[in-house]
Amino acid sequence: MLSGVNKLKKLSAILILMQITCSIKCLGQNTWFKYLAPFTASQSFYQRDTITSLGLLSVKGGKIYNTISFCDKDGNLIKVDSIKSLNIDSLAIGVNYAPREKYYSSIEGAGKFRFGMIYQVQTKFGLKQHSVILDYPNLDAVVKLNYDTFNTTLKYYDRINGIEYATIEWTKKIDKLSSTSNSIIYKIEKGIPKILISMPSQGVCASCHQYSMSIIKGDRTSSNLFTGYYDNWDYYGTPANWQYHVVKLDTSGKVLWDSRITGSDTFNTSGVVYFQGKNGNLYCVWSNLFYGPHMNPLNDSYTEQPNMNHSIWMAEIDHLSGKVLWRKSLKDSYKWYKLFSTSTFDYTTFLDVAVSDSMAVFVGKKQALLNNKPNTKIYPIVMAIDFNGIFQWYREFDFYPNDTGDDGFNPYSIIPVDSSYLLTGDYFTAGGQASNGISFQKGAILKLDKNGCFTEECDKYDNVNYHSVSDRRFRLYPNPANEYIIIDVPYLKLETKFYIYNQFSKLVKMGQLADKKIDVSDLKSGVYFISLDAGLGNGNCGIVIINH
Questions:
Q1: For the chain, N or C: smaller number of CB within 10 Å?
Q2: For residue 192, what are the β-bridge partners?
Q3: Is 90 exceeded by the pLDDT of residue 547?
Q4: Alpha-carbon span 421 to 363, nearest angstrom
């Protein structure tokens, strides 16, 4: 019995090693999955064959410091700088960290850049957040972005058309239940921040119309700017029923138009990301994760209610007038790469977009509640749309599908590098429950190829009309297996074929999945990949351990 357990542990180790090895050089592709020293990684940028990533490092005593990691173009770590002390404020208490929202770096030249950071100070009013923009490598404070003694949180910082812009949000607590806030866009010239636009909350209350400015983009057709904000309906409950507005303004802060992308109150907008096409128009992508007030067909409630049938939406906005030209759901267009375990509920949000000469690639996350584990798991996803707003492809990734303690890879940003894509984020497991014996949270970088693939030929069936998401889920058990495995496929047909590959990608068995059961007694103990083809493409694939 002990020998069998040891053998199983060995096979599990082989599985993990195989997946890590695959991430370095997957089936001849230059794709990889690499960990960083810090426990988080928010944003990366690429400069002269060096990948620079900003993140956080935790040390003894509970202190958290901002870090800058440098890797070569293959993801190999070169060095990590930890910013442990700053002479920027006599009241700083040494707890420093970078914001997680979108871009916050501005590239100056080889090995030089500016970045935004939040730090804490002890004042007579209590512990407050302040924000600052620093030069690297000197770490000089270029601009302080503080507003009185309130919490001042840097949301965004970058350089557009040679001019630096930053967005901050400050909040002031009124009483135990209420606060007021303001969102400000700064235009920074010669190190001096000037208010470009200010959007205060409408009144003082717990849930009424809180504004939060988002990332600023430059207009490709002019010197104007685009930004956006979430407008929360005035109702009783938590502020998650938000509607998104795209705003066009000139460089003096004058609003040229304000466009609400839904145009109605029928659904909410979560995780809005947008890009500008070659025609100058804006293409917005979002999810309707929650019903609007009174819109839930099962419960007429003022408070937010999860939309179990939410979808990914897209809209095109005329860049001259702000008019929404069209909006549509992309639910029927998904080309799922895989969702190995059956999900009882999942939701999708997008976080960032990388724009090339021919298309835009969005990165997001699918957080799923799975039947085989008590906690949710995060799947990184990427989706491509061309400059005509036409859906191209969709991918999602699961690195340890059999590990019930795996909480997944949580992405934050995407950048194009040498005709490929880098996803930056965190990989983490659930508090010591990982079956592989590993428990940690680490900053990580995932490299995909030009087609968004991590494994070879993942784009083979991009032009096939797949079944809907609910029809494509399947279960594989027992795992580990001895004599047979059962594959529960909702859309099983007589012509469904199965293919089994060993860890060296060699086809070792194939046949028709007539009764959902496959005899594996003739296969040696080891780790195998399984894929299906029902005339719809073999998008469903899983990993099984055979242990005799």
A1: N
A2: 189
A3: no
A4: 10
Least confident of 244-258, 446-460, 531-545: 531-545
Domain annotation covers residue 519: yes
CB 516 within 8 A of CB 489: yes
Q: What is the DSSP letter of 548?
A: -
Kindly give, in sequence order, each residue whose CB lies less than 8 Å from that of residue 17, ignoring residues fewer than 6 positions away. Answer: none
Residue 145, both tokens = 């972005």
Q: At 17, phi and psi to the nearest 5?
A: -60, -40
pLDDT above 80 for 216: yes
Among 226, 224, 227, smallest CA distance to 212 is for 227
User: In total, how many domains does the chain have?
Assistant: 1
Q: pLDDT (tens digit, 9 = 90+) per residue, 324-354?
A: 999 988 876 764 444 444 455 677 889 999 9
Does the pLDDT at position 30 exceed 50? yes
User: Which one has a higher pLDDT value, 471 or 43?
Assistant: 43
The first and second tokens of residue 206, run together, are 């717990």
Per-position DSSP letters for 130-149, written without gaps between them:
EEEEEEETT--EEEE---TT
**pTM, whole model, 2 decimals?**
0.76
Give pLDDT, residue 9. 38
Q: Confirm whether 482 is domain-assigned.
A: yes
Nearest to 38 by CA among 63, 66, 78, 62: 66
Separation of alpha carbons 430 and 315, rounded Å:
37
pLDDT at 472: 43
CA 7 to chain centre: 37
What is the C-alpha separation between 415 and 202, in angstroms, rounded? 36
Query: What's the token pair of residue 147?
Result: 């507003």
Pairing between strand 151-160 and 141-144?
A: unpaired
Q: Is residue 405 part of a domain?
A: no
Tell me the percentage of the chain whose pLDDT exceeds 70: 67
Give the H or E element holding residue 410. Answer: strand 406-417
Which CATH number covers residue 531? 2.60.40.10
- Residue 493: give the domain boundaries: 476-546
How many Cβ atoms sit within 10 Å of the Cβ of residue 480? 18
Task: Answer yes or no: is pLDDT of 514 > 50.
Answer: yes
Q: Are strands 255-260 and 242-249 parallel, antiparallel or unpaired?
A: antiparallel
Contact by Cβ (8 Å): 152, 132: no
Instruction: Name residues whose C-beta falls within 8 Å of residue 16's C-beta, 6 or more positions apart in sequence.
Output: 400, 436
User: Does a structural domain hold residue 499?
Assistant: yes
Within 8 A by CB and 6+ apart from 145, the residues are: 116, 130, 131, 132, 133, 152, 154, 166, 168, 186, 193
